[in-house]
Amino acid sequence: MDTAIETVGLVKQFGDKRALDGVDLKVPAGTVLSLLGPNGAGKTTVVRILATLTRPDGGRATVCGNDVVREADLVRRLIGLTGQYASVDENISGWENLYLVGRLTDLPRRRARARADELLEQFGLTAAAKQLPRSYSGGMRRKLDLAASLVGEPRVLYLDEPTTGLDPRSRNALWAAVRARVATGTTVLLTTQYMEEAEALADSVVVMDNGRVIEAGTTDQLRARVGGKVLHIRPTRAADLAQVLRALEGAGLAGASLDAEAGLVRMPIAGDAELTTAVGALASSALPIAGIDTHVPSLDEVFLSLTGAQPAGSGDAAQVRA
Ligand SMILES: Nc1ncnc2c1ncn2[C@@H]1O[C@H](COP(=O)(O)OP(=O)(O)O)[C@@H](O)[C@H]1O
Ligand SMILES: [Mg+2]
């Protein structure tokens, strides 16, 4: 299979901060790769380098075989970018925004007009074509933003946190638009803080933290790698949570975490032996326990276990599931 995007040992330094510390990525043409990671992981920096907006300090990156530094002009002709923050012009209508992008990317007038009409239709924005974007809802603006990045029919599309802050309905609409685009063979690099989004759209996932790749695979593989199951232990008294944690640690069990809001301790367990040890530790602690159950880890728990960070906006993510 052709490789659409490749980075090898990508390094980016901002003063003392090493934003990227040797990032290797490979995205086969026509597939969707999700770059997943908490705030500050380096996702946007990767996208900016691949979009020729920032130069790497080390390593190299290519888009459809073209080097992002030496052949930046060629790369720019192949890509579309929807950034984390909307880049639409507030003072001209939705239609004019798309027309302008078309003209800026050298489409003839007639083609630029047709493309603006076509995309508004495709994104269900025809009725709002003549309105200024400031009258649009958040979801409509993101759709306009995405439409703008598709004017030039890019072979490679970067979506940098395209749905952060969107309500679940707008998020689903945007996902549908991305899927339609992928069906035409476009390669997509999607950054997100939502495991759900990665699962909904991506063929494969790369988890980044602190400028490094820490895991790569399909979402199923990531779940499997985190291993087994998660034990949820709910003490009768919320005040006992910390003691439950200590009892488990005292029995040599590592990796438990306390979720005060949910009123439980989560403990990843690799197998039956650990489960038995955990139950034994709780019994000898004599702490009153209201419930113990085993769960297949949620995607958020996988994320937590890989990065040690709560996925930002996991509240929103939970809404999406509901
Ligand atoms: N222009 C910049 N100047 C200084 N530091 C930056 C700049 N851009 C990003 N950084 C830093 O680099 C790290 C990675 O940032 P970023 O790529 O934006 O992460 P993410 O998109 O995953 O949240 C962060 O620590 C951030 O503060
Ligand atoms: Mg970012």
What is the β-strand count? 14
The H-level CATH homologous superfamily of the largest domain, spelled out, is: P-loop containing nucleotide triphosphate hydrolases
Number of domains: 2
Percent of residues in helices comes to 25-40%
What amount of the residues lies in strands? 25-35%
The fold-level CATH name of the largest domain is Rossmann fold
CATH architecture call of the largest domain: 3-Layer(aba) Sandwich
Family: Belongs to the ABC transporter superfamily. Drug exporter-1 (DrugE1) (TC 3.A.1.105) family.
GO molecular function: ATP binding; ATP hydrolysis activity
Pfam families: ABC_tran
Organism: Kutzneria albida DSM 43870
Architecture overview:
- The protein has two domains: 3-223, P-loop containing nucleotide triphosphate hydrolases (Rossmann fold, 3-Layer(aba) Sandwich), CATH 3.40.50; 228-296, Alpha-Beta Plaits (2-Layer Sandwich), CATH 3.30.70.100.
- Helix 5 (138-150) runs parallel beside helix 6 (168-183).
- By secondary structure, it is an alpha/beta fold.
- The radius of gyration is 23 Å and the shape is elongated.
- Helix 6 links the parallel strand 7 (156-160) and strand 8.
- The protein has twelve helices and 14 strands.
- Residues 312-322 have low confidence and may be disordered.
- The chain has helices at 43-50, 72-78, 94-104, 109-122, 138-150, 168-183, 195-201, 219-226, 241-250, 272-285, 299-307, 314-321, and strands at residues 3-14, 17-28, 32-36, 58-63, 66-67, 79-82, 156-160, 187-192, 204-209, 212-217, 229-235, 257-259, 264-269, 289-295.
- Bound molecules: adenosine-5'-diphosphate and magnesium ion.
- Adenosine-5'-diphosphate binds at residues 14, 17, 19, 37, 39-45.
- Adenosine-5'-diphosphate binds next to strand 2 and helix 1.
